Amino acid sequence: xxxxxxxxxxxxxxxxxxxxxxxxxxxxxxxxxxxxxxxxxxxxxxxxxxxxxxxxxxxxxxxxxxxxxxxxxxxxxxxxxxxxxxxxxxxxxxxxxxxxxxxxxxxxxxxxxxxxxxxxxxxxxxxxxxxxxxxxxxxxxxxxxxxxxxxxxxxxxxxxxxxxxxxxxxxxxxxxxxxxxxxxxxxxxxxxxxxxxxxxxxxxxxxxxxxxxxxxxxxxxxxxxxxxxxxxx
Length: 233
Fold this sequence. Notes:
InterPro entries: DedA_domain, VTT_dom
Family: Belongs to the DedA family.
Subcellular location: Cell membrane
Radius of gyration: 23 Å
Transmembrane segments: 81-104, 164-188, 200-221
Distance between the termini: 103 Å
Oligomer: single chain
Number of domains: 1
Structural class: mainly alpha
Keywords: Cell membrane, Membrane, Transmembrane, Transmembrane helix
Largest sheet: none
């Protein structure tokens, strides 16, 4: 009887371990992020988010819910997940802000002047818009894929006061990160469900951006064509 009980217990432990392992992501971005969290704990989640800010193809909608799931597994606390992921967002944003500050207005205009279909007036209009709406753009931009990283560059170019930039970035990042980390924590092993849902949001943003760029290019080409026709006439 004792031997049978031992064998049953061993079988149960093996099954439980296999089930637990199947919950953890393997391979891809999720697997890479999971390995970071296994190795560094909550700091690994922060490092992954910092890299996500610098390389937008790394999706925060994968990393953040996964951090929440890891917290639900006891790898680190929920508070640590929130603090470290937000710190990672701020560090990544600061790096991009520094790039913008080093680039500066004059270099930006010089680069724009060499780009096809782009005019210096486009940069001036963007500057005027950022002067009026920069604070809102930095805060709400932290919650929009692609823009959540890129918005830090014009903030640096325009030399937005650093305390203001840090405050807005921290607040916006804490809201965005907090939602995903908390949902991932609540869903547990089903953390990927929020990733699938937000993936649609990210794709919708990409489609809108692509359409805006396409319209800009078409309008600018037509305008340039009309200008050439008038000059010949």
